[in-house]
TrEMBL record:
Keyword presence, Glycosyltransferase: yes
Pfam families for the chain: Glyco_transf_9
Species this protein is from: Acetobacter farinalis
Family matches, as SUPFAM superfamilies: UDP-Glycosyltransferase/glycogen phosphorylase (SSF53756)
Descriptive protein name: Glycosyltransferase family 9 protein
Keyword Iron-sulfur: no
Keywords from the named record: Glycosyltransferase, Transferase
Entry coiled-coil feature ranges: none
Length: 302
């Protein structure tokens, strides 16, 4: 059985779709999967059981990337095509069954919309597939036995979602006061822009572990899984932390928590005061974030 699974360009949406993919894998354990996604999310699927190939969709003018995808898939007869992008691509492929998710934004959790495609309620939680090499990298970068590691994610894909970086020093002071053996780890994505966003926090916390920039997505997920807590902006890293099973606190400002709250076994969120979708994240105070983080730590204490 061959399944084509077309998922998101953005990392966060791609992570959210992994629960649906895991449900398909459970339902069809012998299936061979082809994943179509954007370049940022491609590494997320490299350890997927039954993976046949990953088709990286690089955006082109006049939507020509969809034509590229069709050309890559038209020679195959598919048993199932799943399109989470709401495109017409799968209509022009030979497929015994098609599941097409309506495009565009609508109210409610994105995760629920994904679950409805397979009529799953509650929807399956996001997951991540790790290799032994990923775990070995994580063990080397974040060795056990030196106290709990608290992950901080100060970056996001647009500035409106970024909690002011000068708040992390007083936040850490409060967390360390009650957890003196804890150590921070700073997570961020590849590229100079991500590094520049994370650098003020790295400079403010010189003992922090630099856990960003040059790791694969599955290595990052394995490192996050070793952390006692993750605190960060609404971003792909936030969703990846939750999928890895790390207690995750999401920080929300102008993005909608009703759509993109972190989903996982141990998650919480705090939102800046004001109308949803319009509240400046700078309105989110250090005491509010610190209290929510300490509460989540206490609720998930081993």
């Amino acid at each position: 059985m061959r399944i084509l699974f077309i998922t998101a360009t953005r990392l966060g949406d791609a992570v959210l779709s992994t629960g649906l993919l895991a449900a398909l894998l459970h339902r069809y354990p012998d299936a061979r999967f082809t994943i179509a996604c954007g370049p940022v999310a491609a590494g997320l699927f490299q350890n997927l059981p039954g993976l046949e190939r990953v088709l990286v969709m690089t955006k082109r003018t006049h939507d020509r990337h969809w034509l590229d995808l069709w050309k890559s898939c038209v020679g195959q007869k598919w048993d199932m095509t799943v399109d989470l992008r709401g495109s017409a691509t799968t209509v022009f492929l030979r497929s015994r069954k098609r599941l097409i998710m309506r495009g565009g934004r609508r109210p409610g959790l994105r995760l629920n919309h994904l679950g409805q495609l397979l009529r799953l309620s509650p929807p399956p939680s996001p997951t991540v597939w790790l290799s032994e090499a990923d775990r070995a990298t994580a063990s080397r970068m974040l060795p056990a036995g030196s106290g709990p590691i608290i992950a901080l994610g100060p970056t996001a894909n647009w500035t409106g979602k970024i909690w002011p970086t000068d708040r992390y020093l007083p936040l850490w002071a409060e967390l360390a006061r009650q957890n003196p053996d804890a150590r921070p780890a700073i997570f961020y994505g590849p590229g100079e822009q991500e590094r520049a966003l994370a650098l003020p926090v790295l400079n403010a916390l010189p003992d922090a572990i630099d856990a960003g920039g040059h790791f694969s997505l599955t290595e990052v997920a394995a490192m996050l899984a070793r952390c006692r807590l993750y605190i960060g902006n609404d971003s792909g890293l936030m969703h990846l932390a939750a999928a890895a099973g790390t207690p995750t606190l999401g920080l929300f400002g102008p993005s909608r928590v009703s759509e993109y709250a972190p989903s996982g076994p141990y998650t919480a969120w705090v939102s800046a005061p004001g109308p949803e979708g319009e509240a400046p994240i700078a309105g989110l105070s250090v005491p509010v974030v610190a209290q929510a983080a300490l509460t989540l730590l206490a609720e998930t204490r081993p």
